[in-house]
Predict the structure of 6-phosphogluconolactonase.
Amino acid sequence: MIETFATGSALAEAAAYGLARALADGLKTRGRACLVATGGRSPGPVYERLRVTPGLDWARVVVTLSDERCVAAEAPEANARLVRERLLAEAAAKAHFVPLWPKPEPAVVEGLLPFDAVMLGMGEDGHIASLLPGDPALPRHLDPAGAALVVDVPPGLGAPPLARVSLTLRALLASRAIFLLIAGEAKREVAARALAGEDLPVRAILDQSEVPVRVLWSPSPKGPS
């Protein structure tokens, strides 16, 4: 289930191609498309390839986030800043961006469903989005039948330990395709443990069959994560 790429660059090419196809399918069948972008150390190479994909009508694409730190949009820690700088440029500047902070009304997120593609990274603790181990509300946030689409995550968890907002598992699974990008031997081991049944947040998307999930891995820790 884990697709292996020799370099972070090769992974970025494959991820951008897959995401572009998912968005193109949405545009063709429904006249609009929605991408859930992610933060993390270095998804930038994926965004830089995706934004120059020929033929995508970005004016009909909505981009939102899997999670966000509760900081100003221009703060270095903001996922929104990364997406604006690395994805929403050139032709992709025409896309409509829906930030998660300040936290949007539930109806706004509901109106984006179903997502055409969800892009996720994974931490070495097995977290996805900001569904973090140690959060007392984590079981509720990982409930696929839960009521909420976007939830608050208290400070003191994750790195940096800032307050956050996150899509829930219910929201992430309201999608047509999920792309999980990981790099380095440590994260491959985490993914393998989750696939083997260990109770980690990432297992919630791996241990389901309703939404296709691609797990893309490269050995370079500088690759997308």
Remarks:
- Residues 8-30 form the longest helix (23 residues).
- The radius of gyration is 16 Å.
- The beta strands are 2-4, 33-37, 61-65, 67-69, 96-97, 117-120, 150-153, 164-167, 178-183, 213-218.
- The chain has one domain: 2-218.
